[in-house]
Every structure is written in structure tokens, then in C-alpha cells.
Design goal:
- The complex is a heterodimer of chains A (280) and B (250).
- Chain A is of the alpha/beta class and 280 residues long.
- Chain A contains 13 helices and 5 strands.
- Chain A has one domain: Rossmann fold (3-Layer(aba) Sandwich).
- The longest helix of chain A has 23 residues.
- Chain B has a 5-stranded parallel sheet.
- Chain B has one domain: 3-Layer(aba) Sandwich (Rossmann fold).
- The chains are: A alpha/beta (280), B alpha/beta (250).
- Chains A and B meet through helix 2 and helix 3 of A and helix 2, helix 3 and helix 4 of B.
């Protein structure tokens, strides 16, 4: 099967974002546009499927095939496999396009763009300082250094590909500030021609400009991003903060081995405390 | 036992299942004496590669491809993918052999309900001896014995999923390689004439996957193991050895 023969050829929009970036809102807003079906839950098909298939191909299966190994033929088979859930969603909804978001797909943007040269990709960016604040909140409980590294690594992986014509970056803050204009602009980039009603429905989901997202990252998380990813902040158009020398030093310590050990010790202490509480 | 979708290998896939160092490479070599059968030069590991997708399709949180594809669709998707890989062998039939497949039986049975499954069983003491002597893997007889028990039990645990299933003992294969291979081919509906039998016989002497070993090929080499190693093996694998009839003593 070639890309041209794919049942989803030219019909897929992949949304790429670090968790807590607002990607689900973008998927829902795009799903309001006539002829577009949002995938209601992540497929995880690249992060829990294609990634291991490709790893196994490169490290083992290709050797087993020897002279008969054919990358193009294999990638076509992988494409057919990954197409299956997307084609099923299109069939079930009679839509012309399907929009999919899985939170771990962003780090696989390279292989995704190779397998889906005909797809459109939307990179949803949110200020990393707020993303880290959310990821490290008691709700999700990520280690600060992990959250900061994840945001920086994710954005860098996609920023490298920003010059690709089928990759479109949008800042969630801009979408929330003026959803109608930003959504219309994004739809045009995706070759969609939504009606005013479609745009109004999507804009309503994004708060109609009246419900801005929280913007109060804790200083500690903010400094991690300032130390680890000033280039990413700059590329994405976010104003860098200028932490004091002491804050910068503390952030660097958190991002190093000492921070990892400290976090592990804190986690162990927390689990010990909880276990004691459970024991009464 | 119908394939989940149209398939060039409908009723024409053979899956050899066994723990590592059980003689599967040799058995496949013998089977390939039949001109209709083909395989890859090494283990395809295709089912290992699909394991994440399989787990994705069965996520407990309701996310993943299982939210979009029913069981039949998942089976068909897996089958089409594997068929495409197997088609590289350019043969009417495909023989798949990857030791890790003992851990993937539910997946394989879903994609290939129409396949012919051969479970090659070898005396666990010989398997352990061979695993420990190999230049890779564990050097600990108890570990190797655990691997053997796990693998054999995994296949037997899921045997009910395999409509076309046969167990073959390595020791019987050693005693009569042409007869045992012929019986398997005929079970699969493949005629064995004099020419095929001669081709199998010619392959009997091929040394496969020896990894530099120079000792004789055959069964019962475990008798040269130390009492301590054998004690470790029996502690782990005594029940299964007895269950399979490997009760002879040194």
C-alpha cells in the first residue's frame, strides 16, 4: 500500500503537545468544524505501537530479512497499521478529516512526519513555566526537573521541523485570547473552510476570549525553564524572566543529580508517611 | 480456523514454538526441505515488535486503538501487517520461529488462528545445559531452568487458543528426523514424495545455531552436568520434567 492508496490519505490532523498544554481544547474546537471528527480518546498508536515496531525493525527484523529487507515496503505496512484506528473513526463519523492527539506523540514527530507526509500537524505550545507548574502540582505530581526537561525536549523536537509546510505551531494563549480569529487562521492553514457557525462553536469551547488560562507559575518551576530552555522560550515568543543568581543556582542544582536524589528521597519520605498513616 | 482477513498465507503459516536452545532452528531447517515452505534467514521478531500495539489494543483505561477497532478489526490489522513482513520470504508457506514467541501466543493466535503450531519440547536439563554453554544469556542453571519452565508452561497454558497444535519431542526428532518431519508435513496437508524426503535427509546433518560448540549433537548431554547444577535444575523444574516424562537418572 502506498500513501496514495491509504484510506486516510490527506485526511489526518495530528495535534502535538506536551501534556497540560491545552491540546485537548484544540482538538475539541477543531472537532466543531463541519466535516472534521475529533478522535475522542488518544490512540497512542505511535507511542504504544509504532515506536516498538520501528525499533524492532531496525534492530532485528531488518537483519532477519537480509537482502530482501525493503524499508519502503515495511513503512507502508506500518502506515497501514497506524491508519486502522483513524480510518475507523472516519468511517464511524462520515467525516472528511480526523483530528488526533496523544500526549506522548510529540517526541515521535520525526517518524510521524515520515510515515504521514500527507497529514497536517498542529504543534500546540503553552508557556513552559505554566506547563511545569501544572505537571508538578499535587494533581499530577511530576518531579520538577522531569517536567522541565520534558517541555524543553518536546518543543525542541518540533521546533526543528517548523519549516515543514504541513506543520503549524499555535500558542494556546493566543487561541484563548482571540479564539475566533486564531481558529479561523488555523483552519485555513489546515485547508479547511469552516462556516461562521463552526468557528463560533469552536471559539465558545475555547472561552470566547473571556476565560484566559491561569498564568501564575510558581517561581521555582519558572526558574527551571528559564535555566533549561531560554532558547525554547525565545523561539516560542515567550518573554524570559530574569531570576536572581541564587534562584538560578538552586534551579541548576534541581536539574542535576543532586535534584534527582533529593526528589527520590522526598518521594520515599512521602510514601513512608502515607504508609504509616494507613497503618493507623 | 479462518484467517481474520484475506491472506496470502491462509492455512499456510507454520509457527514453531519452544524455549530458546530447544532445537527449533534445526527443526525449521528440516521443514524447509519441502519446497513449498519458506522462512527468513533469522528470527523475524515480528510479534515482539507488535507487542506494544497488542497491549495498546487491550488498555484497561479505555484509551488506545481498542476504542476505535473491535476485536475482529484488530486481528485483521495484525494479520495484514505480519503477512506483509512474511511475504518477503517469497514462498507459498511461511515458517515463523522466534523463541520469544512463547510469550506472545495470545497475539499470534489472534492474528493466525489458521496457522499450524508445532511445540518442540526438549528435555529441560539439556536445554539448561545448552543455554548455560551459549555465549549469551544466563550462566546460572537455575535461571535457565526457570526460563525453560516458563516458556513450556506459557505455550501449554495457551494451547486452547491454537486449533492446529502438535507437540514434538526433540529426542524423537533426533531418533527419526525424516519420519518426524514427514509426519508434520503430512499433518499440514503437504505431500512428501521421495524427492522431499531426500531433501529432508540431506538437511539432517546441517549444524544450526551451534555458537562455536564442538561437542556431539544429540540428546542426553545433561548427564555430564555436575550434581550441584542438576540439583538446582530439579529444584526449579522437577515437576515439569516429571510431567513431560523426563524422569531418567544419570
Amino acid at each position: 500500500m502506498t500513501v496514495a492508496e491509504s484510506p486516510v490519505q490527506g485526511r489526518v490532523v495530528f495535534v502535538l503537545a506536551t501534556p497540560e498544554s491545552g491540546a485537548e481544547q484544540v482538538v475539541a474546537a477543531l472537532g466543531c468544524l463541519t466535516g472534521v471528527a475529533a478522535a475522542p480518546v488518544p490512540t497512542h498508536v505511535f507511542s504504544q505501537g509504532v515506536e516498538l515496531i520501528l525499533d524492532t525493525w531496525l534492530s532485528r527484523t531488518k537483519d532477519a530479512l537480509g537482502d530482501k529487507a525493503d524499508d519502503a515496503r515495511f513503512f507502508a505496512a506500518v502506515r497501514a497499521l497506524a491508519d486502522a484506528p483513524l480510518a475507523a473513526r472516519l468511517d464511524a463519523t462520515d467525516a472528511g478529516r480526523v483530528v488526533e492527539y496523544s500526549h506522548d506523540h510529540i517526541r515521535l514527530v520525526g517518524p510521524m512526519m515520515v510515515l504521514y507526509p500527507d497529514a497536517q500537524f498542529v504543534h500546540v505550545v503553552r508557556d513552559g513555566r505554566q506547563v511545569v507548574a501544572n505537571l508538578t502540582s499535587p494533581l499530577l505530581g511530576w518531579a520538577p526537573f522531569e517536567a522541565a526537561r520534558r517541555w524543553c525536549d518536546d518543543q525542541r523536537a518540533v521546533i526543528e521541523l517548523w519549516d515543514q509546510p504541513n506543520l503549524h505551531a499555535v500558542r494556546i494563549e493566543d487561541l484563548r485570547a482571540d479564539p475566533a480569529s486564531a481558529l479561523r487562521e488555523l483552519a485555513a492553514a489546515l485547508d479547511l473552510d469552516p462556516s461562521s457557525d463552526d468557528i463560533a462553536a469552536g471559539a465558545a469551547l475555547l472561552g470566547d476570549g473571556a476565560r484566559p488560562l491561569p498564568d501564575d507559575p510558581a517561581d521555582r518551576s519558572a526558574t527551571l525553564i528559564d535555566v533549561l530552555g531560554p532558547d525554547v522560550l525565545d523561539a516560542c515568543g515567550y518573554e524570559p524572566s530574569h531570576p536572581t543568581g541564587l534562584r538560578r543556582w538552586v534551579a541548576q542544582a534541581q536539574l542535576g543529580t543532586a535534584g534527582e536524589i533529593g526528589w527520590a528521597a522526598l518521594g520515599a519520605a512521602r510514601r513512608f508517611r502515607m504508609a504509616r498513616q494507613e497503618d493507623g | 480456523m479462518r484467517p481474520p482477513c484475506d491472506s496470502p498465507f491462509a492455512d499456510r503459516t507454520v509457527v514453531v514454538l519452544a524455549p530458546v536452545r530447544s532445537g527449533t532452528t534445526w527443526l525449521v531447517e528440516l521443514l524447509l526441505g519441502h519446497p513449498a515452505l519458506g522462512g527468513l534467514s533469522w528470527e523475524s521478531t515480528v510479534f515482539l515488535g507488535l507487542w506494544d500495539f497488542w497491549e495498546n489494543a487491550h488498555r484497561a483505561d479505555g484509551e488506545g486503538v481498542g476504542a476505535y477497532l473491535g476485536g475482529d478489526d484488530i486481528a485483521a490489522t495484525l494479520r495484514r501487517f505480519c503477512d506483509e513482513v512474511f511475504a518477503n520470504a517469497d514462498s507459498e508457506w511461511f515458517v515463523e520461529k522466534t523463541p520469544d514467541n512463547v510469550n506472545r501466543v495470545p497475539l499470534i493466535a489472534t492474528a493466525y488462528p489458521d496457522a499450524w503450531y508445532i511445540h518442540l519440547i526438549r528435555d529441560g536439563r539439556d536445554v539448561v545445559r545448552s543455554q548455560v554453554a551459549a555465549p549469551w544469556g544466563t550462566n546460572d542453571p537455575a535461571d535457565a531452568a526457570r526460563n525453560w519452565v516458563w516458556a513450556v508452561r506459557q505455550v501449554r497454558r495457551h494451547q486452547w487458543r491454537l486449533g492446529r497444535y502438535r507437540e514434538v519431542k526433540y529426542e524423537d526428532l533426533i531418533d527419526d528426523p525424516v519420519g518426524q518431519t514427514t509426519a508434520l508435513l503430512e499433518w499440514m496437508g503437504l505431500p512428501v514424495d521421495g524427492e522431499v524426503a531426500a531433501a529432508i535427509k540431506e538437511r539432517v546433518g546441517h549444524e544450526m545455531a551451534r555458537y562455536g560448540a564442538t561437542d556431539r549433537i544429540g540428546a542426553g548431554k545433561w548427564t555430564a552436568m555436575s550434581d550441584g547444577d542438576l540439583r538446582h535444575i530439579h529444584e526449579v523444574a522437577g515437576d515439569l520434567l516429571a510431567e513431560l516424562g523426563y524422569t531418567d537418572q544419570r
